[in-house]
Write a structure and sequence with these properties.
Length: about 425
């Protein structure tokens, strides 16, 4: 009986000793876990878990993906950049495949090159109308089509004028009574002179006493006929326009300038231009006039330059591409970004800024306010600071990665709603 009691006492003692040992061990492990938990909490940065197949899933605890069932992996490990939840991370390999290039934002002292389009026109000041000086019927035409080159003094048409015949008869009758009625003689000569007969022609009528029934119309100036308004046999009145001619040895270069670019052009600026028909030849001109009115349809004003056209190789209505170097348009304090770095969405303009000192290349979307365009760059009025690094090439690729990750992007101004799934116990934890 004593032996049985002693063995029970020994068994109880051993059980108590083992229990004490196990209790101390569990207490130590719990204390370490609490300390570790308190250490993580002291950092104030949560650890998120995501799925490699469904990156929009973000849970506060490990487990299975509620979409595909795969094991979740840690998204952020308590690093400094973990608080930037809107930043999109891309590996070096992904950046290389997307050809993403970055550059540091800074000022620019380069000039603004304006690329303008327009065409050549005839110089309006060289236009002239050839008119009839007296009424009559067109008996002959020596210029029969537009585009014909004429010279000053060249015969253009022959006209039959009954009125002019009558005026010549009056002069010859007045000559007979010139000594008696000198005023009548003088009035007859002035009537012929009013019809633009020269003193030599009037003197010839007096000398010969022959009445001419047909008179020639001569060109007042040299040029090219750009409009023909008369045909053979037409009856024309005094002052009727027979032909319109212009001198094409001088032309106007007209270019359209949008209203946003008008501050960068001035009279006297040099223009380099090429003509569509002669693309290999670069010509020079200077701005001589800027239209004070804006075309309400194109929102552009027209600037003009005068050019010489020896040999008339240039033709009116030829299309022209011109470039004006407007000189220095910004100072070192102005921030500029390349045009390729900007993403436009409606009224918003955004760029992607590289997160500094990130272990993995990370980028944040930044909305900016743009100023004038400076060649292939744009002034930045607000949204960036000098020295920040932006995506200069491949911004669309970075934005696509942001959209796939459910981050703030060009198409989603704020982080995608409804894609951040709240943590909930999985079936394995329930058991």
């Amino acid at each position: 009986m004593n032996k049985l009691f002693a063995s029970k006492i020994g068994l109880i003692s051993i059980t108590l000793f083992v229990g004490l040992i196990l209790g101390w061990m569990f207490h130590s492990l719990g204390s370490d876990s609490t300390e570790s938990h308190d250490h993580d909490a002291s950092k104030g940065v949560p650890t998120l878990w995501t799925c490699s197949m469904d990156p929009q899933v973000k849970l506060n605890a490990p487990g299975d993906c509620p979409i595909c069932g795969m094991d979740l992996i840690p998204l952020v490990q308590g690093s400094e950049e973990s608080s930037k939840l809107q930043a999109i991370q891309m590996t070096e390999e992904a950046l290389a495949m997307a050809a993403v290039q970055t550059q540091v934002v800074g000022g620019s002292t380069s000039g603004k090159d304006l690329l303008l389009t327009g065409k050549l026109q005839a110089d309006e000041r060289e236009n002239a109308s050839i008119t009839t000086k007296f009424p009559g019927r067109i008996e002959k035409l020596f210029v029969t089509f537009t585009g014909e080159q004429i010279k000053a003094g060249q015969k253009l048409a022959t006209i039959y004028s009954p009125e002019l015949i009558t005026a010549q008869k009056e002069l010859l009758e007045a000559i007979k009574t010139k000594s008696t009625y000198p005023q009548l003689y003088q009035a007859s000569k002035e009537k012929l002179a009013s019809w633009k007969l020269t003193p030599a022609q009037i003197a010839e009528i007096e000398r010969s006493g022959v009445i001419k029934d047909k008179w020639d119309i001569l060109a007042d100036q040299s040029g090219v006929v750009i409009q023909k308004n008369v045909s053979l046999g037409d009856y024309v009145g005094t002052g009727s326009v027979l032909f319109t001619v212009t001198d094409l040895s001088k032309l106007w270069l007209r270019l359209d300038v949008y209203e946003t670019d008008l501050p960068f052009v001035a009279v006297g600026d040099n223009i380099q231009f090429t003509v569509a028909g002669r693309p290999s030849e670069t010509l020079q001109a200077r701005v001589s006039f800027i239209d004070p009115l804006i075309d309400p349809n194109t929102r552009a004003a027209s600037l003009r330059a005068e050019i010489s056209n020896p040999g008339m190789v240039l033709k009116p209505e030829m299309f022209v591409t011109g470039k004006i170097s407007a000189g220095k348009t910004s100072t070192s304090s102005d921030l500029v970004v390349p045009r390729t770095a900007i993403l436009w969405t409606g009224k918003r303009s955004v760029v992607y800024v590289k997160v500094p000192n990130a272990a993995v290349p990370s980028f944040e979307m930044r909305e900016v306010t743009l100023g004038n365009r400076l060649g292939e760059n744009y002034q930045v009025m607000a949204g960036l600071q000098s020295g920040e690094e932006i995506v200069a090439q491949g911004a669309f690729a970075v934005d696509a990665s942001a959209q796939l990750s459910g981050k703030k992007s060009m198409m989603t101004p704020s982080e995608s709603q409804g894609q951040k799934i709240k943590s909930k116990p999985s079936s394995s934890h329930a058991h």
